[in-house]
Design brief:
Layout (H helix, E strand, L loop, with lengths): L3 E9 L3 H9 L6 E4 L8 H4 L4 E2 L8 H11 L6 H9 L1 H10 L18 E2 L9 E2 L5 H15 L3 E4 L2 E8 L10 E8 L5 E11 L20 H8 L4 E2 L4 E8 L12 H4 L3 E3 L19 H15 L4 E4 L5 H7 L1 H9 L9 E10 L2 E3 L11 E3 L4 E2 L11 H20 L24 H17 L6 H24 L4 H22 L23 E2 L10
Parallel strand pairs: 1-2, 1-9, 2-6, 9-16, 15-17
Antiparallel strand pairs: 3-5, 4-5, 7-8, 8-9, 10-15, 10-18, 11-14, 12-13, 13-14
Helix pairs in contact: 1-6, 1-12, 3-4, 7-15, 13-14, 13-15, 14-15
The protein binds flavin-adenine dinucleotide.
């Protein structure tokens, strides 16, 4: 039987962004939080390095701002960066108040309580962390607090399918009033109605064959917002993390950037260092530079992987700073205290997304987007390490405050019909889904990866158009499943990435094309506008 629910606020996604919104909303609001898997899920759970914030007396928000602008390669929105970095300390204090235990610094030289690491692009030590499993600490505490709150109802194993809008209901004054949601346990589609909907579904790096992201990162919120008429910003900028563990059994294990921050050296198969030939900052150069250098060397040598070596450091230091990396590598027979780690680059972070303002408001009235799903202008053409969790916290809070300020003047959501399954049947050819999943992720890796060309992008566009048509037909005829929904979203996201990449006639930040190797004088965002753009004020 299909169920129907009504809340004040529907939050789709339970990572750092979704839970920050939920926990900052007034306690008298009825809040639903959906997760595609468990409450503790998403990239948040896997974040290792930490969260950037100005906590040290020698550091300054001006310095954090400048570092972010430099990493963003001329495309950051300065106001958005300032807004984020100025709220950094407050965000960390809030996390601590929610029970997150960050590593402390007991040394005499330390001017403040917490141990801070330094990562690529940061000119100061400003990364607060919980050993090398910061995401687990954040996710765990926020999930525990959410479970304690009587006004927050948690729905696990729920997959948001599509948003419900006034325009779909043929009502005047377009706004978002809910979503259809697949219950993975019952296989029924449920109706969630709400005064406000928040998309916090994370990024879309699963669109690439190799990724550091968990399986849920299929860009669902981005695709849902696009279908509902919202603009997308800078989708061509996908960050590739330079160092994922290369091992046949390690699906997507990332070797945190902090390993390089703490002195890890990148090596060729013959043991020689090479980063100096690409950038004077060597291993501490920004991610895109390092990923491109590794990609270049791997292609030049025909190597399957390169190496990252921290074994010259004291064993206790390594075990103290990188217990998770050490343990995980050891489970594959690699002892990082004694030998280098085999690494490859992998898709890691979606810099672009749903266009929002500083409160997370999208183009569609009553629809917000927060966290990796959103395009706030913070990251520009390249995200600086550890700014992303900070973005989830800062914009999550401002989103909650904006909702709180509007709720009294917002009408109840109108009635909406149940999901109609009368015209579809059970699929008799699931191989279409698995084949298209593989094909899509493979050609995105080969043609729209770290180094692009016009020809490769045109080839990818041709492929994605065919897949789009095939999946649209399949979707219209068969009952929905998690795999089908994710594939449908991935094809949409792939198309958005390809179209954005084709529009950018220059190389900048994470977008590197052999046909236009230099940046243009005047940087501009790539904004894609859907045909059903709502163009109505909030
Ligand atoms: C391995 C790794 C390490 C990282 N390390 C760092 C770091 O050290 N510092 C840093 O700042 N950033 C780091 N990042 C990036 C950072 O973790 C993410 O950008 C951030 O956690 C995103 O949070 P989010 O809440 O937007 O999304 P996520 O944490 O990805 O959460 C998405 C949520 O949405 C749910 N969801 C998705 N689709 C649907 C749907 N259709 N219906 C219902 N629910 C849905 C998922 O189940 C999940 O609950 C790292 C990322 C990875 C992958």
């Amino acid at each position: 039987m299909s169920l129907s629910f009504e809340h004040d606020v529907l939050i789709i996604g339970s990572g750092a962004a979704g839970l920050t919104v939920a926990l900052n909303l007034p306690s008298d609001l009825r809040v639903a939080v959906l997760s595609k898997t468990e409450l503790k899920s998403g990239s948040t759970l896997w974040a290792q390095g930490g969260i950037a914030a100005v906590l040290d007396d020698d550091d300054s928000t001006e310095s954090h701002l400048q570092d972010t602008l430099v990493a963003g390669a001329g495309l950051c929105d300065k106001d958005s960066v300032r807004f984020t970095v100025e709220h950094g300390r407050e965000a960390i204090e809030w996390l601590i108040s929610q029970g997150v235990q960050f590593d402390t610094d007991e040394s005499e030289e330390s001017t403040q309580k917490y141990h801070l690491t330094k990562e690529g692009g940061h000119s100061h030590r400003r990364i607060v962390h919980a050993a090398d499993a910061t995401g687990r600490a954040v996710s765990g505490s926020l999930a525990d607090r959410a479970r304690e709150k009587a006004n927050i109802e948690i729905f696990e194993d729920r997959v948001g399918i599509d948003l419900i809008t006034h325009s779909k209901l043929f009502l005047p004054g377009n706004r978002c009033v809910g979503a259809y949601v697949l219950n993975k346990k019952t296989s029924h589609v449920e109706l969630f109605r709400a005064k406000f909907v928040v998309l916090a579904t994370g990024g879309a790096s699963k669109v690439y064959l190799y990724t550091s992201n968990p399986d849920v990162a299929t860009g669902d919120g981005i695709a849902m917002a696009w279908r509902a008429g919202c603009r997308m910003g800078n989708m061509e900028f996908n960050q590739f993390h330079p160092t994922c563990l290369y091992h046949p059994q390690a699906k997507s294990f990332l070797i945190t950037e902090a390993v390089r921050g703490e002195g890890g050296k990148l090596l060729l198969p013959n043991g020689k260092r090479f980063m100096g030939q690409f950038d004077e900052r060597e291993e501490l150069a920004p991610r895109d530079v390092v990923a491109r250098a590794i990609d270049h060397e791997m292609k030049r040598l025909g190597a399957d992987c390169l190496y990252l070596d921290i074994s010259h450091k004291d064993k206790d230091f390594i075990l103290g700073h990188f217990p998770t990396v050490h343990q995980r590598c050891l489970s594959y027979g690699i002892d990082i205290t004694k030998e280098p780690i085999p690494v490859v680059p992998a898709a890691h972070y979606t810099c672009g997304g749903v266009v929002t303002d500083s409160a997370g408001r999208t183009d569609l009235n009553s629809l917000y987007a927060v966290g990796e799903t959103a395009f706030t202008g913070l990251h520009g053409a390249n995200r600086m390490a550890s700014n992303s969790l900070l973005e989830c916290l800062v914009f999550g809070k401002s989103c909650a405050e904006d909702i709180a300020s509007r709720i009294a003047h917002t009408p109840e959501p109108p009635p909406a019909p149940s999901w109609d399954e009368s015209q579809v049947t059970d699929s008799d050819e699931d191989v279409v889904i698995s084949h298209n999943w593989d094909e899509l992720r493979r050609f995105m890796w080969d043609y729209v990866g770290i180094v692009r060309t016009n020809k490769r992008l045109q080839r990818a566009k041709h492929r994605v158009d065919l897949l789009h048509q095939e999946i649209r037909d399949y979707y219209s005829n068969y009952k929905v499943s998690n795999d089908l929904l994710e594939l449908r979203n991935l094809v949409t996201v792939a198309d958005l990435i390809i179209c954005s990449a084709i529009q950018r006639k220059e190389s900048r930040g994470l977008h590197y094309t052999l046909d236009y190797p230099h940046p243009l004088k005047t940087p501009e965002n790539t904004i894609l506008t859907p045909v059903n753009f709502p163009a109505e004020p909030w």
